[in-house]
Amino acid sequence: MPTTDFLETLELTDEQRARVQDQGNVVQITLVEPITYKHSKLDGDRTLTELCLVKHVKGKHMKALDKAVGEISQSLALVAALAGVPANAMDELDARDLDLVMVILGPFLPQFRRTGTD
After folding, report:
1. Residue 93 falls within a domain, yes or no?
2. How far apart are CA 14 and CA 36, in angstroms?
3. Sign of the CA dihedral 52, 44, 62, 100?
4. Would you state the pLDDT for residue 51?
5. Which residues lie across from 49 on neighbouring strands?
6. In a domain, 49, yes or no
7. Among residues 57, 48, 1, 58, which one has the least CA distance to residue 28?
8. Do the domain assignments include residue 1?
9. How far is CA 52 from CA 27, 66, 70, 83, 112, in A?
10. What is the predicted pLDDT for the residue at 38?
């Protein structure tokens, strides 16, 4: 499990680093572009300006991957599960935010889920 200074080990730009706060059990990421979504058909619009992702990835979070087809869809499903928002909210996630989120999550994912590294 990464230590609380895991952010120091990540290759982030100054702009990216300024958008990330380690808050112990969660990592807060300020979004480049706010996300507006409906939680359900009965709800009005909700807007997220930041994502708070739990650092302790559990089976319940990983199960979200089974519901999605394709690598990007699986990444978005995992982010939604870790942030506690519906998967459809991630449809509006800016690509720059997704890139940063995946870099941040890397140290918390099991070795077998990491891609692009040997």
Report:
1. yes
2. 26
3. negative
4. 97
5. none
6. yes
7. 48
8. no
9. 6, 22, 24, 5, 24
10. 86
pLDDT of residue 44: 86
Which pTM does this prediction carry? Answer: 0.83
SS3 of the chain: the string is CCCCCHHHHCCCCHHHHHCEEECCCEEEEEEEEEEEEECCCCCCEEEEEEEEEECCCCHHHHHHHHHCCCHHHHHHHHHHHHHCCCHHHHHHCCHHHHHHHHHHHHHHCCHHHCCCCC
The answer to whether residue 51 sits within a structural domain is: yes
For 36-59, b/e burial (b = at least 16 CB within 10 A) is ebeeeeeeeeeebeebbbebebee
CA neighbor of 97 nearest in space, from 111, 112, 80: 80
State residue 112's pLDDT score: 54
How high is the pLDDT of residue 78?
Answer: 95
How far are the Cα atoms of 49, 73, 77, 89, 103 from residue 66, in angstroms, in the given order? 27, 10, 9, 18, 21
Domain range enclosing 20: 6-110
Q: What are the residue ranges in the chain where pLDDT is below 70?
A: 1-4, 111-118
Q: How many domains does the chain have?
A: 1
